[in-house]
């Protein structure tokens, strides 16, 4: 990172030098008042080699005839034939009276000294004038033949070759505005002007007017200077430049010489009375040196990060000059005699100590430092953007299973390596090397034998000296922990199937799942069920009773036939027993999610909490655009403005994809693989005992079920821990448990249990920090200033899912999460994404018309950024 100002020179950068420049020409105009501006040579320094004589230093291409040589009289009152020029109070005045005027130095500045120093600079003081619009002010122009300079006329002209001008700053509309076109009659290769509306403009003979727009400067007077860098004066050669105002860099750019060896230099001005100019100077470039480092940023985890320092000199470096390079401690790490304009030195940086500043000094034979530069090598922290695995639990009665451990990150130290260890070698065999060069991403393939027990993998990331800078652990569980102490509030084994002799395959009684209380138990039993939404059956009907039913195996079936189902026990679980124990639990076993279709992530069974009676009564199809159940959708095609959102404050489902899916406030906050070989298989059938999904919830003491209060959750699959986190209750005193299922054929489940949990098994760990995520955007604008696109960058919490919603004024809203899995086939009104382990979510390519708005979700809390 450069600390000094910089500019582009060919393919390089040059800083400002410490030494004085070599003056080729200067004029401070400190001579007697006279309408002949070069009647004497007082105040003029002429090192051009041209021996410029009195009355032959300047030429006026455009000036009032009365003021022109040989008369040097008072200009007339008409402006069309030009204004006057004079020396007055030790300053040059142009545009005196009505009309503009200009002047060029009668020398072609192609001196050998310029090429020897790699370029030249022009400086001019613009000290005063009376008007304050963009069409008044003063400046200079370069890169002209003598004929071009001599052809220049009124600075306001726009009529092409018949009315040429030195500059394009003062032209009449529609030219001259910053960002607008350069007028077609400009004859110089480069010009720069300070203008009455406190703007600084520059440009060439083509393209657009560049610079700083109206009121960008503190005043409409000051010193303008431009440094030019190039290897020769040949037509077509690129000239790089840097523009300064009162010593501060205001811009860089480049142009090309339009002719070979054509570099006459002129001054230009426009005002209704006069423009005061002073201290015109043309100088070679001073001795300079530029230092760069590759890479410019190293990992903060590396203790020996290799860095290459490159330097090159510019300007007039004297014979016998020496250099030395110092580090942050001011220790000299390299030195020698300057025998070439370039140099290279290889070193290393300890990134753990922070940024390193390198300095190069060039000294003459005195020795005195004549040029210096520094470069700061910054550090970047290692960021792990993704750390996942294809399985977190395995059936200990099953065969060996294949698992991939995935790691992705950035800013690793150079030459970093990895090593993978495990705590149960008998259960593991490795397909990937257990150590090697660290790549991004890193995928390690292992085979785990669950009959040998659980395994914890440790992946060590090391720098090139073997120092560990990051440790990642992965657990594959095969043995369930001890179950918690539960006190059952309500349970249902669904053991109440009754055969109907008249219709053995479709007994009507079993389609009302609470027609009998058999199988129900617990302190709240029996309870009725609210069978709110029952979708199509096999016969094509809608809201048919057999969408939710007890089957012949004494299990509960839902989403029977095409469509889905939503239902709930008719009880608000805000009981005193829950408040006393401080936590409660919901669990349900699943035999199958039978749905061999494409959108397998939205074929599932699950349950949610934090629902009101009204929300339960309003359950409709979660997969459509017209309503909502407790869960919400992962994939909803064509749904505008996020109306596939679920109603439950928390919901957990098990999908046909063998994913445990966790939702909060209707938005998926995580998906977790639970078995490497698949729970349900391709057709959605599980064999043997059901897969049991359990979610435990802990509340702050005292338990109030108040809106806005945090709830801590833990999710288990077959007793094996999957994930945990927080959400917030959105309503006070609302805790119905809602269930839903969606499949092409059916979802089969069994053994619903709702119970309190002893605080010794699940204590509330305290409220989360819950910071609002940082959100910023950058915009691209048209020439008229209208925003045409925005890039969103959101920095939140690792692993948190964010949901950004567009306002109606947005033309489009498309993006992606990095690296979150988010969703496929996203609706245009909502963009989902999961922040990586760095917490960053990037959503580019947004095209607003009149504003934007967005909404983020974090731990049950929604954040909203209104349109600006």
Q: Let me know the largest β-sheet.
A: 9 strands, antiparallel
Structural class: mainly beta
From the N-terminal CA to the C-terminal CA, the straight-line distance is 33 Å
The amount of helix comes to under 10%
Give the oligomeric state. single chain
Average of pLDDT: 81
Number of strands: 58
The dominant shape is elongated
Q: Count of DSSP helices?
A: 4
Beta fraction: 35-45%
Rg over CA atoms, rounded to whole Å, is 39 Å
Show unreliable segments: 1-20, 537-542, 636-643, 770-868
Give an account of the 3D structure.
By secondary structure, the chain is mainly β. The chain is built from four helices and 58 strands. Strands 3, 4, 6, 7, 9, 14, 15, 16 and 18 form a nine-stranded antiparallel sheet that branches. Strands 35, 36, 38, 39, 41, 46, 47, 48 and 50 form a nine-stranded antiparallel sheet that branches. A seven-stranded antiparallel sheet has the order 5-8-17-10-11-12-13. A hairpin with a 2-residue loop joins strand 1 and strand 2 (12-13). The protein is elongated. The two termini are 33 Å apart. The relative contact order is 0.08.
């Amino acid at each position: 990172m450069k600390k000094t100002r910089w500019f582009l020179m060919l393919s390089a950068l040059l800083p400002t030098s410490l030494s004085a420049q070599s003056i080729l020409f200067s004029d401070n105009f400190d001579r007697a008042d006279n309408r002949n501006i070069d009647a004497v040579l007082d105040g003029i320094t002429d090192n051009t080699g041209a021996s410029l004589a009195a009355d032959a230093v300047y030429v006026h291409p455009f000036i009032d005839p009365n003021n022109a040589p040989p008369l040097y009289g008072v200009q007339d009152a008409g402006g069309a034939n030009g204004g006057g020029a004079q020396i007055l109070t030790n300053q040059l005045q142009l545009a005196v009276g009505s009309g503009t005027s200009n002047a060029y130095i009668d020398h072609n500045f192609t001196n050998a000294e310029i090429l020897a120093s790699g370029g030249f600079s022009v400086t001019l003081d613009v000290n005063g004038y009376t008007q304050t619009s963009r069409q008044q002010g003063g400046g200079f122009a370069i890169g002209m033949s003598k004929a071009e300079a001599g052809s220049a006329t009124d600075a306001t002209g726009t009529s092409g070759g018949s009315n040429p001008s030195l500059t394009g700053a003062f032209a009449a509309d529609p030219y001259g505005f910053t960002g607008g076109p350069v007028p077609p009659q400009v004859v110089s290769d480069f010009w720069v002007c300070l203008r009455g509306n406190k703007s600084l403009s520059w440009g060439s003979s083509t393209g657009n007017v560049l610079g700083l727009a109206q009121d960008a400067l503190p005043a409409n007077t000051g010193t303008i200077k431009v440094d030019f860098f190039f290897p020769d004066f040949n037509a077509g050669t690129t000239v790089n430049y840097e523009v300064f105002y009162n010593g501060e860099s205001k811009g860089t750019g480049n142009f090309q010489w339009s002719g070979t060896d054509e570099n006459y230099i002129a001054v230009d001005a426009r005002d209704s009375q006069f423009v005061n100019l002073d201290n015109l100077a043309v100088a070679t470039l001073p001795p300079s040196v530029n230092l760069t480092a590759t890479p410019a940023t190293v990992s903060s985890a590396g203790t020996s990060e290799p860095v290459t320092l490159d330097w090159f000199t510019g300007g007039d470096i004297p014979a016998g000059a020496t250099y030395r390079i110092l580090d942050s401690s001011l220790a000299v790490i390299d030195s020698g005699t300057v025998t070439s304009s370039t140099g290279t030195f290889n070193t290393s940086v300890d990134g753990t100590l922070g940024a390193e500043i390198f300095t190069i000094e060039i000294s003459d034979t005195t020795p005195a430092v004549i040029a210096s530069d520094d470069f700061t090598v910054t550090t970047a922290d290692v960021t792990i953007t993704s750390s996942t695995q294809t399985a977190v639990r395995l059936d200990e009665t099953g065969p060996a299973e294949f698992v991939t451990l995935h790691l992705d990150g950035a800013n690793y130290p150079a030459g970093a390596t990895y090593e993978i260890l495990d705590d149960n070698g008998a259960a593991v065999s490795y397909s990937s090397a257990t150590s090697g060069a660290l790549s991004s991403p890193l995928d390690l393939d292992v085979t785990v034998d669950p009959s040998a027990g659980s395994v914890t993998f440790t992946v060590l990331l090391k720098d090139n000296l073997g120092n560990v800078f990051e440790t990642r652990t992965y657990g594959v569980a095969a043995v369930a922990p001890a179950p918690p102490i539960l006190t059952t509030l309500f349970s249902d084994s669904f053991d109440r199937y009754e055969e109907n002799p008249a219709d053995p395959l479709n007994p009507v009684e079993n389609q009302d799942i609470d027609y009998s209380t058999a199988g129900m138990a617990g302190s709240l039993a029996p309870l009725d069920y609210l069978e709110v939404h029952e979708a199509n059956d096999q016969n094509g009907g809608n809201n048919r009773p057999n969408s939710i039913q007890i089957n012949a195996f004494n299990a509960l079936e839902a989403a029977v036939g095409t469509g889905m189902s939503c239902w709930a026990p008719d009880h608000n679980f805000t009981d005193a027993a829950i408040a006393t124990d401080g936590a409660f639990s919901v669990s349900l076993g699943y035999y199958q999610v039978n749905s061999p279709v494409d959108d397998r992530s939205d074929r599932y069974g699950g349950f949610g909490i934090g629902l009101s009676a009204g929300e339960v009564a309003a359950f409709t199809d979660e997969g459509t655009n017209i309503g909502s159940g407790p869960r919400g959708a992962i994939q909803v095609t064509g749904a505008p403005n996020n109306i596939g959102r679920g109603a439950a404050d928390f919901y957990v489902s098990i999908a046909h994809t063998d994913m445990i899916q966790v939702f909060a406030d209707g938005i998926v906050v995580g998906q977790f693989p639970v078995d490497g070989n698949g729970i349900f298989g391709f057709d959605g059938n599980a064999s043997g005992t059901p897969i049991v999904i359990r979610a435990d919830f802990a509340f702050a003491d005292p338990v109030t079920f108040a809106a806005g209060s945090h709830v801590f959750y833990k999710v288990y699959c077959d007793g094996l821990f999957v994930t945990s986190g927080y959400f917030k209750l959105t309503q006070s005193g609302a805790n119905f448990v809602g269930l839903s299922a969606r499949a092409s054929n059916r979802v089969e489940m069994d053994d619903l249990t709702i119970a309190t949990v002893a605080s010794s098994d699940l204590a509330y760990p305290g409220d989360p920090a819950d910071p609002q995520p940082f959100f910023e955007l950058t915009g691209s604008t048209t020439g008229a200033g209208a925003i045409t696109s925005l890039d969103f960058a959101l920095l939140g919490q690792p692993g948190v899912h964010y949901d950004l919603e567009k306002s109606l004024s947005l033309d489009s809203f498309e993006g992606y999460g990095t690296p979150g899995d988010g969703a496929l086939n996203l609706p245009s009104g909502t963009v989902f994404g999961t922040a990586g382990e760095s917490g960053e979510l990037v959503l580019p390519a947004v095209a607003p018309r009149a504003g934007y708005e967005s909404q983020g979700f974090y731990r049950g809390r929604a954040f909203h950024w209104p349109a600006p």
